[in-house]
Structures are given as structure tokens and as C-alpha cells.
Amino acid sequence: MTSTELSEWMAVHRYFMPLQDSWHQTGVLAASVLAPHRGNGKPAKPADFVPIEQPPQHPVQREETLRELYQQLRGE
User: Fold this and answer.
1) What angle do CA 15, 20, 11 make, to 5 degrees?
2) What's the pTM value of the predicted model, to 2 decimals?
3) Contact at 8 Å (CB) between 49 and 22?
4) How far apart are CA 65 and CA 26, in angstroms?
5) Axis crossing angle, helix 3-15 with helix 59-74, rounded to the nearest 10
6) 16-55-43 Cα angle (round to 5)
7) pLDDT tens series, the chain, 76 aa
């Protein structure tokens, strides 16, 4: 795997579709353990237990960030 390919995968993971990881698995486990104790309230989702690396962005901000990342990868 080249450095460029690794950088592209890291960008895909960070901005578009995170790959399955231990945080997601832990979130599923935590939501499952908590489910019987919630009563009639809203059930917990696995995502409630996964930390967010970066706050959600507006689509325009996301495009700008991806454009900057693309320029960095191309060395511009």
C-alpha cells in the first residue's frame, strides 16, 4: 500500500464512512446491556456510546475540507 493510498483510505474513513472498529462494537454491547434497564424510555443507540472525532459539518464545509485535503495529497 502506498502512502497516497493510505491517505485516501484515511480520508474516506474520517469523512464518509467509518470502517467497523472496536468503538462501534463497544457501543452495540453497551446499548444491549442498557436496554433492559431503560423502562419505557427511548432505547439507547450504539452511536450514543461512540465518541465523535470531529463535530458534524455543513455540506459546504465538508466539500471545502475535502478540496483542501485533495490539494494536500496532490502537493499543490
Assistant:
1) 25
2) 0.43
3) no
4) 29
5) 170
6) 85
7) 888 888 888 888 777 776 567 788 888 889 999 888 877 778 888 888 888 777 777 889 889 988 988 888 887 6
